[in-house]
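Possible race condition, two jobs.
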Amino acid sequence: MVLVGFLACGGSNPLARIGDCFGHLLGSPSELDFKKEQKLRRSIILTILLALVPAFCTDAAESAVTLVVNGQAKAAIVVPSEASRAAGEGAKILRDHLSQMSGAQLKVLKESELKKVKVANGRIEPGSAKLPAETFILVGEGELANKLGASSKGLGPGGILIRTVGNALVLLGADDKTPSDPFGSRYAVTTFLEDELGCRYLWPGESGKVVPKRRTITVRPLDVRYTPLFEQRRIRWSRHSSRIQEGLDRLGFSKEDFLRARENGSSTRSQSSNWMGWHRMGGTLGLRTGDGTILAGQTWDRFLREHPEWFAMQLDGSRYFDPSWERPRLCKSNKALVEAIVQEKIKELKRSPRLKSISLMTHDGGSKAGFCMCPACKALDPPEGRPTSVWTYDHKSARTRRFDYVSLTDRMIYFYNAVAKGVAEVYPDVLFTGQAYSIYASPPVRQKLHPKIVIRFVHSTGHYVSDEVRRQGMADWDAWAQAAGMIYWRPNLLLWGRHEGTAGVFVHKLAEDFRHIAHNKCIGTDFDSCMHHWATQGLNCYVLAKLHWKPDLDVDEVINDYCRSGFGGASEQIKRYLIRVEQLTDKTAAGKTEEADGKRKRDVTEPYTPQVIAELRGLLDAADKAAGNDTMVRRRIAFLHRGLEFTELQAKVYRLLRLAQQRRLSAAEQITARQLLDRKWLMMRRIFKEEHFAVNVAALCWGEWWRFKRLDWSGPSQQAKESVRPN
């Protein structure tokens, strides 16, 4: 009777509801002595609450799932009998991290190995066989997960489900049901390890992994369903290349040395996907892209032999093009060329009927042939277009020179449209990928885009080097987003300081830009590139990866978490260090832009004066002291120290380089410059061998080596070389 009255009463406060209901049942104060009524009311309420507490506690206990107790496994990891690749990888990652955290060794089983278990009352129960564990972690979508009411239904590409049900924790994704991003189950595992168990992956390698020690692991009630906003989330991972090999040769290392150092530097105790995989980078839009991929190499060769008139006319009137040159340019107004490309693209689609897109991308950079300056091409360039600097090649002097001109965007759109129109007559559903880049980054003035063209928008390297460039770049995005039906982001933002490798942080600007673009027509990303300057610029990559998964994250919360998770008692000092570096980076970007050789120039090493270096070193030294006896935290601080030491030496070298651009160096200054460059060469070799991911020294030796000719240095001295030779 009392319970019926309680359940029938309204209101949101349980105690108030109980009181109101008993007042209703006992009658009004006029019918009972007031004091006796109050005493009776309290007695009944207390009795009922005591009766309900066990039920409440039982519900709470059943909704939590215990995986490990005092280092002993209480759970088993179960994958479907026919597990997806994502589920298989996720199960191993989870097993290894739980082991490293607690010491417990959880078994990984297939559903078929559980034999006659059943699901009843929302729990996994034994049938006629004994259960191998008390609780279960279901990784990937299988029969058990479905019987517990957990499925991938409604999840998009890369989507995840994390849910506790009875005595099970379910971690799954749509996987192979969404072929554009089939790794949801693995994403669910790393999301669980991060959000619930506190694991982090700050940078590649063991020192970058944060795996908290927990002898007992109990999972709170969870019910998470999430699909990432972007179907394609990509940050390019800088690997071995001809450019890297050039740098390795200068350092005295081989390709095998490089691959071995990469493998050793990125290895961790717990099996995991790579750094990108851990941070759930992945997916694809299925678009054909790439500079110069409008034609295959053999087609270029044939065109060059048979139709030299199809290639760009230089200002000197010549069209000669050497087949050995890396980046041939086209005469984009030539109708015969357009028709030839249309036919090549139709052949391509016939060979590969499943292609959903074809590339219209021609070559962009290159130091030899410039863009076409024939009368027909120039007529496609509106005089009111944005002023820019264009280059041309003089064959008589064999030199490239720049001259003032206007944006080439309208001629590029004319060319894209012409090819798209011809191909679409045969294949009306195919998409065409073009790009906004270089001297055709500004929005079109007169031309309108064909509706099937997808634009790959490229923000320049200077985006965070100059606030002026950043403002223009964001305005250009907005204009292109209005002009194009589909647009995706292919920025060069991570190439900030790639040739210098010095400290730089721009995460607040990055987060602001990312949020704006993510919610303004962007369909996916392709960032060029993670340069592996992790000890000097690593926070940028870390924050960027987090933003790809959740674009609206609070960047300050990410920084706080990065510092707390990775640096423990030294978190405040590390945060001050990183924020100070960001202030220096912002100050450089806000400064005046100098023009040199037709290009905007900013020296990202300039803020690092001896006084600033001393200030930053003081912060890292204070962090090391605050870390106490925590050896892993001190190791991470030493990693950042290595980056600061390199920044200090780079700043000294570049101060002399700036001076040499103003006047001739004295004999003493020249000696100092050569000594510093020798020291730097030796330091880069040590970084390569000892802290491979601190600074990508091989990339630097390719990108900046030529600059030091001005300092009368073409390589290490004989004394420096002899100091590294084995005895």
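Job #2 (started ~2 s after job #1):
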Amino acid sequence: MKRHPSAFAAPVAAALLAIPASGEVPAPPESLQLFPAEGTTVEPNDGGTVRTEGDVAVVDIAPGHDWGGVRFVFAEPFVLNAYETVSVEVSNRTDRALDFAFYGIHRGFFTWHASRRFRLGPHEGQVVTAPHPRKCYALARGSREIDGMIGYDSKNFFHSFDTSGAIDHYVVCCYSRKEPARFDVKAIRADGGRPGFTLDVDDAFFPFVDEFGQYAHADWPGKVHSLEELKAAAEAEDEALGADPVSPIPGADRFGGWGAGPQLEATGMFRTEKRNGRWWLVDPDGHLFFSLGCNYVRLQCRTPVLRRERFFSWLPARDDPPFADCWKDGKLNWLGDSLYKGAGAVPQFDFAMANQKRLYGADWKKAYVDRQHRRMRSWGFTSMGNWSDPEIMAASRTPYVDNFNLDGVRKLEGDKNGVWRKFPDVFDPDFASNVVACALKTRTPKSRTDPWCIGWFVENELHWGRGNRTDDMIDAVVGSPDDQPAKVEYLRRLRAAHGEDATFESATAEDREAFAAEIAERYFSTVKAAIGQVAPGRLYLGCRFHNSYPAALRAAAKYCDVVSFNCYKDLPEIPRFPADAVDKPTIIGEFHFGSLDRGAMHAGLVPCRDMADRAAHYKAYVRAALKDPNLVGVHWFFWCDMPLTGWMDGEDYMTGILTVTDTPHPEMVEATRELARELYAAP
């Protein structure tokens, strides 16, 4: 380790953790130099060697080190959450182009913060800036954690706890691979100091949820303060919907397709067609259709109350007639192994439903169903995405997707990486018949023949393997009990290829890849056959990939009518299909952007500066999708902001089109209407 000598550089620590245990947090300076700075040391990273030339760190990297570079270690943790951006000044000292990355990290939690990947040409130098929109607030020193909330509870959400309040070091690395490389780093600085970057959780913080389910300790445009304001907001929106009852899509037909466009074959069902080099959905009336959709068009705002009663300023009695059915007891499958381990059925309360009852009384559901269809039409949405309310779906007023999961199908017991459930064992003798049984359990039976149903997703974010590899899938097979059908079949194949003494260790890379390819082939072909048996002609929309390996993509393209991906990035970037894959359209099943400026405590997976920035990102994402000749739709996640205190799995993301009080975010509504006018601008 080398301590960077700099007698004149401002000490980093002076502006870092000068945060009191309670009380007002001082605003950080507008800018903070992290290197060169007193107390900052430089260390090599993964095959790099570092020397200093004055105030410059010069890095040499030997061949074969993908992460070779330099790390800048701070004397005390740097509060990244206090700043909008981090900039690094880097120069390439070679005669060839080099690829770089830089990122901040807390040693205890390997999560990148304020990171960028970039390329520098031969002898090129740049100041490269990474934004740092906050996902949530950093907890002030001495603060309590908040049980059951992602970003604030390290005990139950280790990988989701916000660590941007304590960055130990920054890394600048170069992917040198086969050739040696040299670069230098002249400066690292943080800019855009922002006040209010921490949350002080002490006794006075509780309760922090008001009677309407909103954050109690702040105000913002659109916040509801009384029943009168709640009703006034609903009346104002009714007036706006009445003024704009027609879709903003020029020439829209009854489904939201391009009725003014070319007349294609009308089959009475949604289908796909490639036209002039671009894939499209075609609606039942034979018109081009783009699925601009939103997940969870429903009330889905129940939040666990057990052991968290102090969070809420108001909770009705369980037998209080107006609000009794806002309560529900249920097992929380994802929180059950942590916060609620052994608790069984956990009491949950739905503030969004309570607000509907305040507005419309006992007959609220009828008014709610009607309102959602009016909104979708007026705002320009053409689809309801996954997990929407069956009663809303069944009204035959807005196209929708349905779904089913492979519950009850035998799983690979060795699958340790499944996000929501273990991967199915496709070699189980009962796999095909069990998939058919599952296909009979979509959210609404009507979707088997309903012309308003676009198609079916099956499963969600199955774990196919990290980093484009088959290793995770094979590890799941080998790590299963000896009687697991997939494990038995894998060993049989290995012995057929390598002799009766072969073991799993005998497998070559080709053996592993071939068996993983067979798993994918059996999975997608079996699901496709089940849909064909239960709902002939219904589009199979895939498994909503969030990771994959090439053979899985190849099989999906072979059997799915539309291949689906969930893509939480700034733009719709999805994996490339293998060159020999069947040409098929794609759809994005989930994406979102969030911000903290409207009473939120978590901005979701892709945070933005504020609501205006969020709307701008939304428009850029959809416009990029409209330019992609393979994409036939994108679905926002989701309709209503999540509960402030988190729902069934602790997610507390404020990424909705609507608030918990059923008030639209006007920026998101206007963005959707603007996009709707462009859906069929250049088909």
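The chain has two domains: 2-205, 289-471+514-676.
Logs attached separately.
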